[in-house]
Design goal:
Layout (H helix, E strand, L loop, with lengths): L1 H22 L4 H6 L3 E7 L1 E2 L5 E8 L5 E4 L9 E5 L3 E8 L5 E8 L1 E2 L11 E7 L1 E2 L5 E8 L5 E4 L9 E5 L2 E8 L5 E8 L1 E2 L8 E7 L8 E8 L5 E4 L9 E5 L2 E8 L5 E8 L11 E7 L8 E8 L5 E4 L9 E5 L2 E8 L5 E8 L11 E7 L8 E8 L5 E4 L9 E5 L2 E8 L5 E8 L11 E7 L8 E8 L5 E4 L9 E5 L2 E8 L5 E8 L11 E7 L11 E8 L5 E4 L9 E5 L2 E8 L5 E8 L6 H13 L20 H6 L1 H10 L13 H12 L7
Parallel strand pairs: 2-8, 10-16
Antiparallel strand pairs: 1-3, 3-5, 4-6, 6-7, 9-11, 11-13, 12-14, 14-15, 17-18, 18-20, 19-21, 21-22, 23-24, 24-26, 25-27, 27-28, 29-30, 30-32, 31-33, 33-34, 35-36, 36-38, 37-39, 39-40, 41-42, 42-44, 43-45, 45-46
């Protein structure tokens, strides 16, 4: 990299000398009798920084100006922001055009180690941790520098040298000064046993559980320390020494003081039978259910304890001894007192017949239905009991004796009293035809659908009755005689009057082609691909269609889209498709070509090839500085370098080629200012 830069600056130097020699024709004897003398002083740069500088001072004449590495001359001879390990060319020029040149090497200032000669000492003290606990401490103090922070075992640095909550073990404290100087110290935290010489004694009291239950308890207390917690059978520790809900068995109670010292006590709970010598007696009364019903009951009363609850057939226990809603059958009643002692009693419920000697009489009236309809009715009235409900043909019972919506047929009405006593009556309904002698006529009009669409309609008008509704192909009836959304097919419309009289007619819908008389015309506006542009594929086709409406567009058989513009295209031939709102389509072919060079670029290109390529500098063979101007896109890409070298600095073309004229620079500037692209 350094060699490349040296070569570049040398090139600039020789170009500048050539330029100055050609531009200023100063009398030789003047610069010889009063020569200009250049004196330079430098400041080297720090490593990896651009902080070097050069101060240039000239004598021999007046109106001094200074240039660094071929840059334009300026009034100041001070140059800053210079990188280390580089050679810089300084040129001084007076008002007569006399010059003097000096080469200056900017060196590198080696970095200074702030910790050279510094020794950091770390003094460490500690307190031991209690056995199995993390309560040790370390205090560190460093000397030999200032602004210390501290780290324990390579952890994060902190301002304080105090570290707490430490377990027994080996530790390293690292101290770091504000300059980054490091020192370390080691220490060992030991472990002390707080339970040495301590005896924890556990005292317990107990309550034995009832047989088969978990109602026992243990209460523990301890001596031999303070802050006791308690554990049962090595479970979790708790603040209280009370353990409840215990079954019979062996238990281990452990007490632990605040220092972790423990003591244990074994406790055995023995089951106690509260029912020993207790006899529970159950007495019952009953009410037998009515035949076929579940209206029986059992009431139980128990002795031989207190707080009785009752169960029927081993079901859930309840506070009441009464069980209702029972059918005929065998039952077992269980009574349980507050201590869990039980007694049982078996009870059999028989059947009671409330309808013995009862006769239920059913009388009816009827309305026959219209032919083909279900508008008949039956009304029943029963005697011989009270609280009657009624059933039709064995269906559900209802409070009313009236049944409506009936078709012609034979029906059986059953009446049931509140006691469940039954009576029945058979009734026959006969059809009445309201349409005898009635002629329903149906006339139809249509609108044929478009081919492959469902947009046809049929309109029906009926005569020969009133209150007409209409059905299409035996579908549901509707008030309107118009049916829409129909495809091509044969349809039958049925009209029904308010009396249920029917008439029908058929009609055929034929599909019509909407595209038969549609002519779609396509025109395409094409934008050719401009080379050397981003994106590379920048061609565009704009489609214009006429002759219909509701257009969508596709390219090369792809999906249709609302936009008529297809962009981002490469060169080539494309098929453009157009579809209108009726589905009618048309295609055309469009060819995207390559745009010619723009006139400004063409002028600039010719100038660059004739001047910069004449010495095989920026050609395929020369490829100077990575630029090959035999390739048009390389010229477009290098526009800024061309402006800097050929227009601004006059460093190109190289000698002996003459520098560009004002007109040639204007040619380049016109292209650059127009956008410096291939098509400009």
């Amino acid at each position: 990299m350094k060699n490349s830069l040296t070569f570049f600056f040398s090139l600039l130097f020789f170009a500048a000398v050539f330029f100055i020699a050609c531009e200023h024709e100063i009398p030789h004897d003047y610069c010889a009798t009063d020569p200009i003398t250049l004196t330079v002083t430098k400041t080297d740069a720090n490593s990896n920084q651009d902080n070097g500088s050069i101060l240039a001072t000239a004598t021999g004449g007046s109106g001094f100006v200074y240039s660094l590495n071929g840059a334009p001359f300026a009034d100041t001879g001070y140059f800053s922001g210079l990188h280390a390990n580089m050679t810089y060319q300084v040129v001084a020029k007076n008002s007569w055009g006399c010059t003097d040149t000096a080469l200056v090497d900017i060196g590198e200032i080696a970095p200074v180690d702030p910790c050279a000669g510094v020794t950091v000492t770390v003094n460490v003290t500690n307190t031991n941790a209690t056995a199995n606990q993390s309560n040790g401490t370390i205090t560190a103090a460093a000397s030999g520098a200032s602004g210390f922070t501290y780290s324990l075992n390579n952890g994060a640095f902190q301002a304080s040298g105090n570290f707490t909550g430490l377990a027994a073990g080996n530790y390293t404290v690292t101290a770091k000064s504000s300059d980054g100087c490091i020192g370390t110290g080691q220490t060992i935290i030991g472990s002390t046993n707080p339970c040495s010489g301590v005896t924890v004694a556990v005292t317990t009291t107990k309550v034995d559980p009832t047989t088969g239950q978990s109602n026992g308890s243990i209460t523990a207390s301890a001596t031999g320390g303070s802050g006791f917690t308690f554990s049962l059978n090595n479970g979790a520790y708790q603040a209280s020494g009370n353990f409840t809900g215990l079954a019979a068995g062996n238990y281990l109670v452990t007490a632990k003081n605040s220092n972790g010292c423990t003591g244990v006590k074994n406790v055995t709970l023995v089951a106690i039978n509260p029912c020993a010598g207790v006899t529970v007696t159950v007495s019952t009364t009953k009410v037998d259910p009515t035949a076929g019903q579940s209206n029986g009951s059992i009431t139980a009363t128990a002795t031989g304890g207190t707080g009785f609850t009752y169960s029927l057939n081993n079901g859930a226990f309840q506070a009441s001894g009464t069980f209702n809603g029972l059918a005929t059958g065998n039952y077992t009643v269980t009574a349980k007192n507050s201590n869990g002692c039980i007694g049982v009693k078996n009870v059999t419920l028989g059947t009671a017949n409330p309808c013995a000697g009862v006769t239920i009489t059913v009388s009816t009236t009827k309305t026959d239905p219209t032919l083909g309809l279900s508008n008949g009715s039956i009304t029943a009235t029963a005697t011989g009991g009270t609280g009657f409900t009624y059933s039709l043909n064995g269906g559900a019972y209802q409070a009313s004796g009236t049944f409506t919506g009936l078709a012609a047929g034979t029906y059986t009405v059953t009446a049931k009293s509140s006691q469940g006593c039954l009576g029945s009556k058979t009734v026959t309904l006969t059809s009445v035809n309201p349409c005898t002698g009635v002629n329903i006529a149906v006339s139809l009009t249509k609108t044929d659908p478009t081919m492959n669409q469902s947009n046809g309609t049929i309109t029906a008008t009926a005569t020969g009755g009133t209150g007409f509704t209409y059905s299409l192909n035996n579908g549901p009836y509707q008030a309107s005689g118009t049916f829409s959304g129909l495809a091509a097919a044969t349809y039958t419309v049925t009209a029904k009057s308010s009396q249920g009289c029917l008439g029908s007619a058929s009609i055929t819908l034929t599909g019509t082609n909407p595209c038969t008389n549609t002519v779609i015309t396509i025109s395409n506006a094409i934008v050719n691909v401009t080379p050397c542009s981003t994106p590379v594929n920048n061609g565009k086709i704009t489609v214009t269609a006429s002759g219909s409406s509701g257009y969508t567009y596709n390219l090369n058989g792809g999906a249709y889209q609302a936009s008529n513009i297809f962009s981002g295209l490469a060169t080539g031939s494309f098929t453009v498709g157009v579809k209108d709102l009726n589905g009618c389509t048309k295609t055309s072919t469009a060819t995207v070509g390559t745009a010619p060079r723009g006139p400004l670029f063409d002028q600039a290109r010719s100038l660059i090839l004739s001047r910069c390529g004449a010495s095989n500098c920026h050609t395929n063979g020369g490829n100077k500085a990575g630029y090959n101007f035999d390739n048009d896109c390389n010229i477009v890409t290098a526009w800024s370098a061309i402006k800097a070298s050929c227009v601004t600095s006059n460093s190109m073309p190289n000698s002996p080629q003459p520098q560009l004229t004002a007109a040639e620079k204007a040619t380049l500037n016109n292209w650059i200012n127009a956008g410096h692209g291939y098509g400009n």
